[in-house]
Design brief:
Layout: H1 2-21, H2 24-50, H3 65-93, H4 102-127, H5 131-160, H6 164-192, H7 202-210, E1 215-227, E2 230-239, H8 241-245, H9 249-264, E3 266-275, H10 276-280
Parallel strand pairs: 2-3
Antiparallel strand pairs: 1-2
Helix pairs in contact: 1-2, 1-4, 2-3, 2-5, 2-6, 3-6, 4-5, 5-6
Length: about 290
């Protein structure tokens, strides 16, 4: 919350400073900071939402709010990148049409950089324990790099009068924003399309299940995410007849669940145990 307050105040200062100084680079950095603010708010909200219990209408709770927010944030970032890129190229082609007040630009950029440093110090402790806090920390770190680019361009303009430095810096900041936007959208689309989580080796999971004592086959394996970092797994597991005969299904379920949680960080796993005669006539099987 402290970092949110810092970023929100400096965002307003940067927008006002960009309008007053005529600096596109400063405006681009404000857009970068807007993304940071969104990421911080999402991280804060996600912490609260994760604690809410599931209901009969929302059986997985509200964890996908974070994913929907990421889609909005990614689309907003792409819009900012497009505007800054077009305007930055226009200023490089004809820099004489733009008047930039380098001193106000430098002062505001320094304030922005200082705010980023303060936010990093605030977030540093939680970044080691929370994936959301770590993401917010990295976002602010990226914005600090953007602020440094703006400071350098302001110094160049102040010392040499080379106003094209503002357009160059704005394109650098846009270049810093673009990968984040694409990664956000990619990760969000992966979750919404129920693809296997990034870095998950489904074949290895299948081999682990097959290697469990009493398992003779596995099919209909599904792995997906509710939100990044929260993986869900389900599978039909064909077991030896003696497992049912001896009432050893509880032991097998415990072993399979512990395997998925311990080796693959799967938070929620569901196994349908079935005898081979049932599996043989089950329709629409897949690996």
């Amino acid at each position: 919350m402290i970092a949110i307050c810092i970023v929100a105040v400096v965002l307003v200062v940067e927008v006002v400073g960009a309008v007053a100084s005529g600096s596109l680079a400063l405006l681009a950095d404000a857009g970068h900071m807007l993304s940071d603010l969104t990421g911080l708010v999402v991280a804060l909200v996600a912490l609260g939402i994760a604690a809410r219990p599931a209901t009969d209408t929302r059986t997985y709770g509200n964890r996908r709010v974070e994913v929907f927010a990421a889609v909005v944030n990614g689309a907003l970032l792409l819009g900012i990148v497009g505007f800054v890129a077009v305007e930055g190229v226009r200023r490089l082609v004809d820099p004489s049409t733009v008047e930039i007040l380098a001193l106000p630009m430098l002062v505001v950029a320094v304030v922005g950089a200082a705010a980023n440093v303060a936010s990093l110090l605030v977030l540093r402790g939680g970044a080691a324990d929370s994936i959301n806090m770590r993401g917010a920390y990295l976002e602010v770190l990226g914005d600090l790099i953007g602020s440094i680019a703006v400071i350098i361009s302001a110094v160049v303009i102040l010392l040499t009068g080379f106003v094209a430095a503002d357009g160059i810096a704005s394109l650098v900041v846009a270049g810093l924003i673009l990968p984040r936007a694409l990664l956000l959208l990619r990760d969000a689309m992966r979750v919404l399309s129920q693809s296997a989580p990034r870095g998950t080796d489904v074949a290895m999971i299948r081999d682990h299940v097959l290697g469990t004592a009493g398992v003779v086959g596995v099919h209909d394996v599904h792995v997906w995410s509710i939100t990044p970092g929260v993986a869900v797994f389900s599978a039909h597991v064909v077991v030896a007849p003696e497992v049912f005969a001896t009432g050893d299904t509880g032991r097998l379920l415990d072993e399979l669940s512990e395997c998925l949680a311990g080796h693959f960080d799967v938070e929620h796993s569901t196994f349908q145990l079935e005898p081979s005669e049932h599996a043989e006539h089950e329709a629409h099987q897949h690996r």
